[in-house]
């Protein structure tokens, strides 16, 4: 079997409002983040299957004959037996996988599940991501979505959406749901038992995704390491310590998510005004205070807020907090933020509300990304 | 009639938690502030009645014969006719009184109400206050309480509580209530229509006052001027704009006041531990965030919080916010705060939970205060 080459990308995700509150049954507002993961699938004719993940220094090739011994029938639910065989195959024994091992495992699992019952193609998959890994920005979900879309396309389970006269192509709702279900298998392997939110977000028009106007943001990684588990536990402790003080704060966060969703929906229907931005900024400030109240702030995030406030911009943490990443809303015309790089932070000027998973003509992808992907 | 000399002091007040929320029906926690107003009453024999208020550069003397023309019968409710006559007498025509005119008006009103129906004494009242005026620290209430206590003592309506073997003397509950009712008349003249909270607070054992352990605090005046009226309106606007976001925040503030009250009461009954301080500090931090959320923060107050946080201390605004004063809890052994004076702020290291109105032997009053009072 020979597959057709293809080029696919999927966005990251950012939580606008409701991180932590979502753990306690409140609404969270997550949006697609236009830092993307790009996957190039290229047919080979030498009977090898290769994966190149330069972000995490992972480059592996197998003989098709090796992989054929691991084949399984197609399964929609995670085939625990196959995962076990794959772990043994790649020589992983402990429970906690590093990012390289879990990425390989997800790749092999989806590859074998989709091709294993028939003619297995010789191919190379190369992936390059603009997303920092492990920063709560959905990099592993974007990877799984790209893998699922590429292999489903290669097997003919979903069509190639690219029209000759267009730079990019997107799938219909039904196809997106199929991509999502397979991507979710990859996520389960990488994360254990994810909520499924990350994938769903990457597939536009899913009920969990609200229509969001394309808004410029600054994403800042303070590079302060933190443990999501520890932070979630800290919030829980604080709620137990001061329930009457904290539960109303979660209610307020819930109302912030709902109010923000309403404003964003309005912004997709009517001309965007300064008032829309004023409200979005006020909600960002309020929620950042609430996140400090529930105990997930950090001096590095205070610094982010101060530096951007000095330019009239409004920031909040996004994700787990306690360091990690912050998001700053950029009004049209807002300048760049050299000051933040002076703090030692990584910054990306990007946008939210961009397209979900899509197929590309190579010419529609930034040159420097194609340059990385074409190396392999 | 000749009166006996006396020396009286009353404390200021500070709001620990619940400023602004109290406007919306929530609990506020106000405590006595050990920055005090001192009043010295001295008999004269020259038929003059004099008042000296060096804090506000006010020094006035009248002939008893002038005042006798203004006499009224004793009244517990504010005698609008007398106030009208007094305004005319001191030559005030517009509605908004300056602090000098309102202090004189309150003095004359209480003097004439209490002495007017009988033999009017010739005397000098001199007042010196450690409290900044107009900073929301109850300076006018402390003044009214001192006036009422001094004149009620002079008329024999309440006893002289000073025992020979004690430095200070305090009145019983019944006498305190009489002082309070007269002080309230003075407050009404000064403020128009006060809530009565300020006075009640100055009189210990009143239902509105909780038992508070003596706690060291730092009181900081940012000297940023603000209008309470404008700030109250701003909060109301924000609640109307985002009701579902803001109403839970007020509920949380209410719970902070109740939780703090509970902890303070515990601290009066059991040995004070570091855990008590930890909780008080956490509540201060949370409420300061909430006050920012409801829109009454100010960069000068952020600076206060930052400078004190750098020393491991926790601060919040007290009163109207938008500048004005902040309060910092000082743990035992906490040092002085030169850094704040470097910001251009006024700082007082004082305490909360100190005694209410009391009578003094001169030797129990700080020398520098006696020196000011004895000048007149």
TrEMBL record, chains A, B:
It comes from the Eukaryota. InterPro entries: GHMP_kinase_C_dom, GHMP_kinase_C_sf, GHMP_kinase_N_dom, GHMP_knse_ATP-bd_CS, Mev_gal_kin, Ribosomal_Su5_D2-typ_SF, Ribsml_uS5_D2-typ_fold_subgr. PROSITE patterns: GHMP_KINASES_ATP. Keywords: ATP-binding, Cholesterol biosynthesis, Cholesterol metabolism, Cytoplasm, Kinase, Lipid biosynthesis, Lipid metabolism, Magnesium, Metal-binding, Nucleotide-binding, Steroid biosynthesis, Steroid metabolism, Sterol biosynthesis, Sterol metabolism, Transferase. Catalyzes the phosphorylation of mevalonate to mevalonate 5-phosphate, a key step in isoprenoid and cholesterol biosynthesis. It catalyses: (R)-mevalonate + ATP = (R)-5-phosphomevalonate + ADP + H(+). One of its GO terms (cellular component) is cytosol. Its EC number is 2.7.1.36. One of its GO terms (molecular function) is mevalonate kinase activity. Coiled coil: none annotated. It is found in: Cytoplasm. This is Mevalonate kinase. NCBIfam families: mevalon_kin. Residues 118-200 form the GHMP kinase N-terminal domain. Pathway: Isoprenoid biosynthesis; isopentenyl diphosphate biosynthesis via mevalonate pathway; isopentenyl diphosphate from (R)-mevalonate: step 1/3. Pfam families: GHMP_kinases_C (PF08544), GHMP_kinases_N (PF00288). Belongs to the GHMP kinase family. Mevalonate kinase subfamily. PANTHER family: MEVALONATE KINASE. Residues 280-330 form the GHMP kinase C-terminal domain. One of its GO terms (biological process) is cholesterol biosynthetic process. It comes from Xiphophorus maculatus (Southern platyfish).
């Amino acid at each position: 079997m020979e597959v057709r080459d293809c080029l696919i990308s999927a966005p990251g995700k950012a939580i606008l409002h409701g991180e932590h509150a979502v753990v306690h049954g409140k609404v969270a507002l997550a949006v697609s983040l236009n830092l993307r993961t790009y996957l190039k699938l290229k047919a080979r004719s030498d009977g090898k299957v290769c994966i190149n993940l330069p972000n995490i220094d992972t480059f592996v090739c197998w003989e098709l004959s090796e992989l054929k011994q691991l084949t399984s029938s197609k399964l929609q639910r995670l085939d625990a037996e196959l995962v076990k065989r794959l772990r043994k195959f790649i020589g992983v024994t402990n429970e906690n996988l590093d990012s390289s091992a879990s990425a390989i495992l997800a790749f092999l699992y989806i590859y074998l599940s989709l091709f294993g019952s028939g003619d297995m193609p010789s191919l190379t998959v190369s992936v390059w991501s603009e997303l920092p890994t492990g920063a709560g920005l959905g990099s592993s979900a974007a990877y799984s979505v790209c893998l699922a879309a590429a292999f489903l396309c290669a097997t003919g389970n979903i069509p190639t959406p690219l029209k000759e006269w267009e730079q990019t192509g997107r799938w219909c709702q039904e196809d997106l749901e199929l991509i999502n279900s397979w991507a979710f298998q990859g996520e389960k392997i990488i994360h254990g038992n994810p909520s499924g939110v990350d994938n769903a977000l990457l597939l536009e028009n899913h009920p969990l995704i609200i229509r969001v106007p394309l808004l410029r943001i600054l994403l800042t990684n303070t590079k302060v390491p933190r443990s999501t588990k520890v932070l979630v536990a800290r919030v829980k402790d604080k709620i137990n310590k001061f329930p009457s003080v904290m539960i109303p704060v979660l209610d307020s966060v819930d109302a912030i998510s709902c109010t923000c969703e309403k404003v964003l929906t309005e912004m997709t229907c009517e001309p965007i005004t300064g008032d829309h931005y004023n409200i979005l900024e006020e909600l960002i400030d309020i929620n950042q205070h609430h996140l400090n109240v529930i105990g997930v702030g950090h001096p590095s995030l205070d610094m982010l807020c101060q530096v951007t406030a000095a330019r009239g911009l409004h920031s909040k943490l996004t994700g787990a907090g306690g360091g990690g990443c912050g998001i700053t809303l950029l009004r049209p015309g807002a300048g760049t933020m050299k000051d933040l790089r002076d703090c030692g932070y990584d910054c990306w000027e990007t946008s939210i509300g961009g397209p979900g998973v899509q197929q590309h003509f190579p010419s529609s992808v930034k040159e420097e990304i194609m340059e990385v992907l074409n190396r392999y």
